[in-house]
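Suppose a colleague, Dr. K., hands you the sequence of a protein chain of 292 amino acids and asks what its three-dimensional shape might be. Before reaching for any lab equipment, you can write down a predicted structure in token form. Begin with the sequence itself:
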Amino acid sequence: MPDDFDMDHLNLLIHLLDDPDQEAFQQVSNEILTLGLPAVEPLEEAWFNTNDNLTRKRIEELVHSLQYDSLYTELEGWVASGGQDLLRGYMIATRFHYPNLEEEKLLADLNKLTRSVWIELNDNLTSLEKIKVLNHVLFGSYEIGGEITDIHIPDHYFLNNLIHSRHGNAVSIGILYIIIAQKLNLPVKGVDLTGNFIACFTHIPSEFKDDYKPTNEVKFYINPFAMGAVFTRKEILLYLEKAGIVPSLNCFKPASNIAVLKRWCYDLLQAYLDSGMKEKAKELKSFIKILK
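The predicted structure, expressed as tokens, is then:
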């Protein structure tokens, strides 16, 4: 909590939350909202210490607004920086549904998984051999997987659920795959393939960075949802032809991290709508606007 945070003043404002006058409440509410995230914990404590339903409802609304205002600000910062760190973006996106996410524990679990791959890699392996190692650990040792029907289940979109249950859908597994590959300095990017979500292995540039630009575009394609199966551009064309989809450049080229997260959002939006979660869908639309 900031040194200059006035706890006494916040406590006074919290005590005024039971005022039945809506105009008076609005003034108190606006003042609490200016205090930002440090006000969340005292508000939650106040929620437990009151039995007044009106006060509890108002506290819940305030906590929700404080958390989401902060989340949107953080997402705006990530986009402004070019969305270079996909993991950071995915963490922010996961907190959209889980605002109290234990990030440190999740990062520790993710690092443990990444290390399991790292210890089996060496510089003498070819690009394909390195991908085979990654596939072996993720889909063999860790048994990460999912089903086609998972796209309709909102829980399967979030990083914490995927890491803990080892069960996800095409887009969540794909993003995890890309994140781990990039942590291992493997030049893997997402591809926003219409009707699917895949990854690609690009030619390694002279200096690898999160915002690297492939020197010769795609070396080969990977389908993380199919246990990391490797395929070519010709097979993408065949898939599009069978699906009756007109090919576009986005179906073949590496996508930016912002485009990857936007794709995740649109798929989650449909899952919310399919599940009847209209309020979450409405909030997610505000989230998506930041990514445009």
